[in-house]
Amino acid sequence: MIDRMTRHAPAGRTWTLPLMALALVASSCQIQQQPSASEGTPATSADQPGTEMGIYATGQHPLYDGRFVLSGSRVYHVGTLADASPWDHMGDDGTNVRAVGGTIEVDVDELANTGTFRAALDLPEGRYVVELERFEEFSPCHDGGIAAWLFEHGDSGCGDMNWPKSILYVAGWGWGNATLNGAPLHEEYQIHFMVTQGMRERETLRVRQDMTGPSGAGAVNPAQVQLDFYIRSPEANEANHPTREVFDHFFAMDVTWH
Questions:
Q1: Is position 238 within any domain?
Q2: CA gap 60, 90 in Å, rounded
Q3: 22 lies in the same domain as 143
Q4: What are phi and psi of 202, to 5 degrees?
Q5: In the chain, N or C: fewer CB atoms in 10 Å?
Q6: Rounded distance between C-alpha atoms, residue 210 and residue 92, angstroms
Q7: Which positions ≥6 away from 47 have C-beta within 8 Å?
Q8: How many CA atoms lie within 13 A of 199 on its CB side?
């Protein structure tokens, strides 16, 4: 699997993730010719044929501690908490998203698969809090429940086609709860968060639609970073998109690495 790496800012400073990513690539990458996608090598979350640059595995970095601490702000909610089915809570065209207050906080240890994910958001419906309480691997590429520096979505071999293929700087999967104004709203629901390259256009908030791109790369803007998360019910509903009875989806367009 493409493994994990990180750098820490000096004490008292924070790095925004785009600058952090550029520093990582500049200091930690080796140039090598990979097999062409046309040679038929299958794409996986760890190996993307046709690329010209490889990334050192985090295990090759003796200083890698697996700790990711970051915040998401300028948060948007796709749809509402009370939409009548059928609904679309992917919000790919950017028309049914609304800005909300609050922040998303991540502090995880990727090596130990432990840590915290908490979103405390101010919605028109009230104070909405989501907490991921137990990390769990639902697919081998999830690497124990928290994974970093891998490809997901698109034709990456990890995840579904709901989003374009992107490098995931860090992501988590597991189970948790949501409250609204302090009262239980969702209990023991699946939660997924991911910090990705820019999947949405800066101004329109539309998801870029060419899922693979002309070169085989994902339809993302590597100069941007965003944080998505959702909490979804175990129960399915085929009328909805995605096909769950509940799929509360939020994304942050500003991500700060601490």
A1: yes
A2: 37
A3: no
A4: -60, -45
A5: C
A6: 12
A7: 2, 34, 41
A8: 27
Q: What's the predicted TM-score (pTM) here?
A: 0.81
Helix (H, G, I), strand (E, B) or coil at 23: helix
What is the CB neighbour count within 10 angstroms for residue 243? 12
Q: Are residues 128 and 33 in the same domain?
A: no
Q: Answer yes or no: is 196 within a domain.
A: yes
The 8-class DSSP code of residue 242 comes to S
Q: Are residues 150 and 52 in the same domain?
A: no
Give me the domain span that covers residue 122. Answer: 67-257
Residue finishing a domain among 60, 78, 97: 60
Q: Which two tokens stand for residue 178?
A: 């949501």
Neighbours of 97 (CB within 10 A): 20
pLDDT at 238 over 60: yes
DSSP 3-state assignment of 19? Answer: helix
Domain boundary residue among 5, 31, 60?
60
Spatial distance between the Cα atoms of 153 and 242, rounded to a whole number of angstroms: 14
**pLDDT per residue as tens digits for the range 161-183:** 778 888 899 999 999 999 999 99
Rounded distance, CA 205 to CA 217, Å? 20
CA-based nearest residue to 8, from 23, 25, 26: 23
Q: Domain check: are 132 and 40 in the same one?
A: no
Residues 232 and 108 in one domain: yes
The residue among 225, 159, 217 whose CA lies nearest residue 195 is 225
